[in-house]
Design brief:
31 strands; binds 2-acetamido-2-deoxy-beta-D-glucopyranose; mainly beta; 2 helices; Pectate Lyase C-like
């Protein structure tokens, strides 16, 4: 069954020492695992999960090769039930080349056992690349009709699964694919170090509940760039345990914008060194937002939003330390996540709401060193007045319109 093509790539690497000529020759071997050679039909009706699992096992367990390439061929549609691809793998690099389409089941009863929370998951695979021009369709509409309010346990009939989850995948590369109609979050990256996500398209209706584009949790050194994300919830959400995250070149909307948090729900959270730049946010319900629950501890610091274009955004700039979306059973507490060193620089465009900046910080743990510079936000309605507000926020504002004088020194 295994069709493997073995070839050698020889290439020369010059040392940095400045010496001329050949210093090292590296021989790399690659083996290709085409899912159709493992029995996948690609007719959109047959359950191709067993074939994908066999291709995965062969690729992951392959001996004495540097890279495995799993090929999902073009012009076919593969139906996959919930499936987990688990490492560690023997090859240093595992590529999943998706040229065709992958669709989810269209009935909820296909989810059971430990798969309840996720449709496609990769865990403990280092050196994983998932790329290609194919499409991953989570068949979300069956889940959206009776969506949960709040966060019920997996297994509750309205608890929708995440479409694509990466857990403990160091060196992850994700690029080129189109992700549509996830039941809940489209892509979750959790406990991964050294990640590059680029050139994705993530699309779901504005009205689809909880369909975040990309969630990053407990991960470090993550770069998300040059992608189009328009869904029913956050385009990108960064949550606790994440640091050194760079986001750039994102066209976001519709949805709820780019968000840090909500932090502090389960207690302590730490987020730091986050940079969001060169993004366009269009017709979203929130723009740039940091949100935390009351009662949390830990901190979020060194977060910058730079060179962001706003187009008809409702709630363009927001810090909310009183986050409680259901407005029921909200925790009332004097403890809070400490927010500091947060800058909004070069944020320009229009809002569909009059209150364009709202920095709402905890009374006991104020926000410190908040910087607004070159922030120019006007109403989409020509001539209409807009304003900003803040409580318990310290820092400085310069070149801000509407005038913003509520920051304490
Ligand atoms: C900004 O992002 C766009 C994609 O939205 C990209 O084409 C452009 O090169 C980026 N510019 C800079 C200066 O990074
Ligand atoms: C703040 O974060 C940026 C990355 O977003 C990083 O380059 C810089 O070193 C950080 N500054 C401090 C003081 O940690
Ligand atoms: C600002 O946001 C806070 C927290 O969500 C909210 O309670 C408050 O009403 C908002 N301020 C204004 C002026 O709308």
């Amino acid at each position: 069954m295994l069709v493997s093509i073995l070839f050698l790539l020889a290439y020369m690497l010059l040392t940095a020492s400045g010496s001329k000529g050949l210093s090292r020759i590296s021989l790399e071997s690659t083996t290709i695992f085409d899912v159709t050679k493992y029995g996948a039909k690609g007719d959109g009706k047959t359950d191709d999960s067993p074939a994908f699992m066999m291709a995965w096992m062969a690729a992951c367990q392959a001996q004495q090769i540097d890279r495995s390439i799993i090929v999902v061929p073009a012009k076919k549609t593969f139906l996959l039930k919930p499936i987990s691809f688990i490492g560690p793998c023997n090859p240093t690099h595992v590529y999943v080349q998706v040229s065709g389409n992958i669709v989810g089941p269209n009935k909820k009863t296909d989810w059971s056992g430990y798969h309840l929370d996720t449709w496609l998951s990769f865990s403990m695979v280092s050196g994983l690349t998932v790329s290609g021009s194919g499409q991953i369709d989570g068949q979300g509409p069956i889940w959206w009709q009776n969506a949960c309010i709040g966060s019920p346990a997996p297994g509750t009939s309205c608890h929708a699964p995440v479409a694509l989850m990466f857990k403990r995948c160091n060196g992850l590369r994700l690029n080129g694919l189109t992700h549509v109609n996830s039941p809940r979050v489209h892509i979750t990256i959790t406990a991964c170090n050294n990640v590059i996500v680029s050139n994705l398209r993530i699309i779901a209706p504005e009205t689809s509940p909880n369909t975040d584009g990309i969630n990053v949790a407990s991960s470090t050194n993550v770069n998300i760039r040059d992608s189009i994300i328009g869904t029913g919830d956050d385009c990108i959400a960064i949550s606790g345990g994440s640091s050194n995250v760079e986001i750039s070149g994102i066209l976001c909307g519709p949805g709820h914008g780019i968000s840090i948090g909500a932090l502090g729900k389960g207690g302590a959270d730490v987020v730091e060194n986050i940079q969001v730049q060169n993004c366009t946010i269009r017709k979203t319900l929130a723009g740039l937002r940091i949100k935390s629950w009351q009662g949390g501890s830990g901190y979020a610091r060194n977060i910058s939003f730079k060179a962001i274009k706003l187009d008809a955004v409702y709630n363009p700039i927001m810090i909310d330390q009183y986050y409680c979306p259901t407005q029921k059973d909200c925790i009332i507490s004097t403890s809070a996540i400490k927010l500091s060193d947060i800058s909004f620089i070069g944020i320009v465009g229009t809002s569909s709401m009059d209150k364009v900046i709202n920095l709402s910080c905890s009374e006991s743990v104020a926000c410190t060193n908040i910087v607004l510079d070159s922030v120019y936000i006007s109403s989409i309605t020509p001539g209409r007045k807009v304003y900003g507000t803040c409580i318990n926020a310290h820092g400085r504002a310069s070149h801000v319109k509407p005038s913003f004088n509520c920051l304490k020194p």
